[in-house]
Design goal:
Layout lengths: L7 H13 L4 H7 L6 H14 L2 E6 L2 E6 L3 H16 L4 H9 L8 H22 L2
């Protein structure tokens, strides 16, 4: 997979393909919000395949596209890009931005889940360091 950043439309297409596991251009177009033309979807699918995000197989007369990268790996790659682009490669800066009350209105439940995740990470880190 190349490290090219995805455009908004490319991300939308990848979201659809991940959700459906495999899809034709028509299925992708039908599942997109405010979809572009069929030929535009086909062109975007080809670009995503060239970038290494998708592969296709021919079934009958259709090309069926599927992801080449697991969603978790794609998320990690996107997060690394986000950190590098906007947060100086600092997870602390990212979390601070997420917790900024001017931008986010987190529910008490969301805050508690974040606390649990941090605590789980801390416990895991301590158990690794004692090995």
């Amino acid at each position: 997979m190349q490290t090219d950043q995805l455009s908004r439309r490319e991300r939308q297409i990848m979201d659809v393909v991940y959700r459906l596991n495999a899809a034709s251009a028509a299925e992708v177009q039908a599942a997109m919000p405010d979809p572009p033309s069929y030929s535009a979807v086909r062109a975007q699918l080809t670009i995503l395949e060239e970038k290494g995000y998708l592969k296709h197989e021919k079934r009958s007369r259709k090309y069926i596209y599927s992801p080449t990268v697991a969603p978790s790996r794609a998320k990690r790659s996107a997060l690394k890009n986000l950190l590098a682009t906007f947060f100086d490669n600092s997870a602390e800066n990212l979390v601070a931005a997420l917790l900024d009350p001017k931008d986010q209105k987190l529910t008490q439940d969301e805050i508690e889940k974040i606390h649990r995740l941090i605590e789980e990470d801390r416990v895991e880190e301590e158990s690794v360091s004692t090995l």
